Amino acid sequence: MPRVFVQGSPADHYPRHAPEAGRGAVRRITEVGEEVLHKPCRDVTEFGPDLAALIDDMFLTMYVAEGAGLAANQVGVDLRLFVYDCPDDDGIRHVGHIINPVLESASAGRRLIDEGEGCLSVPGAVMAVPRPDRAVVRGQDKDGRPLVVEGTGYFARCLAHETDHTQGYIYLDRLAKRDKKDALRQMAARRDEVFARRAARAEELGGRGAGTLRSRGPAR
Questions:
Q1: Strand, helix or coil for residue 159
Q2: Could you tell me the CATH superfamily of domain 4-104+135-169+195-212?
């Protein structure tokens, strides 16, 4: 069984970081309360160098923030796409990007897994969120070609979580009011620590634009 899947296809070898990151610059990650995170994103209709450059930046920003996935609106761009570098529950690594993602409806009887989930836009908070144990996402690659990516376990959670972002939802929207308040308390307590770690990672990875990591103000 291959240990890495790139854009949904098996790969014999793959570097520690996606090559896109080497061309990218670090962007500021938006936080809960900012408008761009809470409204549906626009369809991508133009495929070309600007889109490819955005994907490069998103990969590097995701690695700096130690995330498994990152949607465009998490770097302030209201377009429907996300990048990912995420293991499944069998330890198989999945790397790629998806443009205009559509998550297939969960089939009847599909098992829901209630496990911890975090978000780079809710820094420091982790809460249990029920998600299906399998996900299928259809979309396009950066050249506009059709793409289908399937995942199980933790990778399925990642695919669902990131597709939610493109529709203007964050995982807090799936929580009861009391749990949402708990998550925001966690964020308030750990946010500075998270930003310090991101800054250190930016230096380690040599990312351009490291000064943009810190938010320009507290989350609303």
A1: helix
A2: Peptide deformylase (3.90.45.10)
